[in-house]
Amino acid sequence: MIASIALSVVLGLLLLGAAAALLRRTRNSASGQARSALPGADRKVLETVALGLQAVAEGRAHSSYPLPDVQAVIHSGQRLTLQLAVADVAAPAPWTADVSGKEWSLDPTSLRATGDSGDGPTHPYSLTVTLGLHRGDRVLVDLAQLSGPIALTGDDHEVLRLAQALITEIVSGPVGLLATVVLVGSATTPSVTDGLGARSARLHTAATREKALAHTSHTSQTSQSVAGGTHVRRLFVVTAAQFRDERWADAPLRDTDALLVLGWITDAEWHVGVNADGSLDTGRLGVLVDTHTARFS
After folding, report:
1. How many helices (H) and strands (E) does the chain have?
2. Model's pTM, two decimal places?
3. Phi, psi (5° rounding) for residue 8?
4. Is 75 helix (H, G, I), strand (E, B) or coil?
5. What is the spatial distance between Cα 200 and Cα 134, in angstroms, rounded to a whole number?
6. pLDDT tens digits along 212-254
7. Closest to 293 measured CA to CA, from 268, 274, 271
């Protein structure tokens, strides 16, 4: 009788151990997946955005018109809309312009899927990233269109969360296939990197400004066959202290580069304030955001 009880206890402990090991493996697997890819719903929306921007690039490549300056991209689910900085009524199909020429829109179902072959859609707006939601619509901006430093300000924790969400989307999403993010100096610490939702060949680190600026995108060879390499985009991420210490205000950035600063700086061209309720104050950018992307991504 005692032997039977002892055997039952041993078997019970073995079963508990096996169950615990299985649970750990399941959690580790789920964590690894979360850090390597965007959620399915987000990826599908971003694939639509990438195809729409590709249609702009392809349409303009076959005409005498220059590429438009895209101020914002709005995805409502039923419509994809581009808000332009300058009026342009010559929207390439399947885009259609409104009467003012300041907005182009299309039905997402009209876009041609490219499948999984090749490198996917290419376009010169690869630093286009989600700022958040406005009345339920996804709002994206092209950081490369904003000349000068872009400062994220507000509560340190919220600023960090937003920056991590922006970086993750660029380096793991379909819109940023020809974009590279370089974390510089104090922005390479675990407080920043451990919160990123992806590991990607598009994400790099550099100890100093000099080393960061010397970085060449891993996509440069591929992109040389697309409009002479003009689709390559670089986003440099620095803290406010690093910005001041290394005089990033004087950095010789390319026209296609963008500089994101974590924290307040006096000489930012663009200030994006993170409010306590999760909304953003985008200042002179003038884009309305009720809930920033880290709150729902």
Report:
1. 7, 14
2. 0.83
3. -65, -40
4. strand
5. 29
6. 999 875 444 444 334 434 678 999 999 999 999 999 999 999 9
7. 274
